[in-house]
Amino acid sequence: MSIPVLLIISVIAFVVIQLPPGDYMSAIKAQMESLGGLTEADAEKIAQELRQMYGLDRPMYLQYFIWIKNIITRGDFGYSFQYRRPVSEVIWERLGWTLLIATMCHLISTVIGIIIGIYSATHQYSIGDNVATFFAFVGLSIPSFFLALIVMYVLAVKIGVEPGGLFSQRYMFSPWNWSKFVDLLRHIWAPVVIVGFAGTARNMRVMRGNLLDILNLPYVLTARSKGLKERVVIYKHAVVNALHPIIMYQGMVLPFMIQGEITTSIVLNIPTAGPMFYDALVAQDMYLAGSFLLLVAVVLVIGNLLADILLAWVDPRIRYD
Length: 321
Description:
The protein is mainly α. The protein has two domains: about 1-75, no CATH class; about 90-315, MetI-like fold (Orthogonal Bundle). Helix content is about 80%, strand content about 0%. The protein has a two-stranded antiparallel ribbon with strand order 1-2.
């Protein structure tokens, strides 16, 4: 079922990206006219020749079939008009940092969120529970771009650290060494904390609510009545079943992290796929934007498939036959 889902997503993504009027050559035409030296007729003639060269004068459905056929048969995602390079090269050179930041955010938010959620549920209405609940509401309420602005202000004004980017100016183009690695650690924590804050808050609230429900079920009372230690009752019997929503959420967490990474990277000027995707949408670089959306969809579909398998492995009661 994943294959037809991906095909439908690719059609929707390609159509949505082309819905705004004009195309990338329209932006080129406006740029040529603004620079002067060319009349509107000459600029339109050049833009039309470029459309014929890149196949943009063909019907939308034909452009889509050529694009998807090249992806399936040759792994060719098309040509980026904005970067003047193949789309695959533009995406792959930025995808590494994107996946690194998104994966770190995912691991940290999942582990910390589960731990805090377990503590809050087992210490309901305590001071620690109230503090954790308050920060969970804050984490779900503050937009990532606003939190990024706050972090930039604190780094630049209060701490005196150079904000933005993944490296300081002197290490940006230098070869890898221990000093450059330490400089990376000094910068990479900011996007990880910003993007992972909302995920931590969500995991904490889901874990707390679900575990509170399970702790009141009859089988937990039966386990306690048998004389089992409270630690065994919570971690062996209750927590395992409370993890089901967390596991199901893992299938869509990476695209969610990439979504938060887009705005954060734009604010912090980080060379990831976020600013690239935003620029591609603004410039109507359809093959670049469409290919990135398709890759995110692939990650989402595969993630949901793996989450289903993991859920069936954790809980033997779940079967799909």
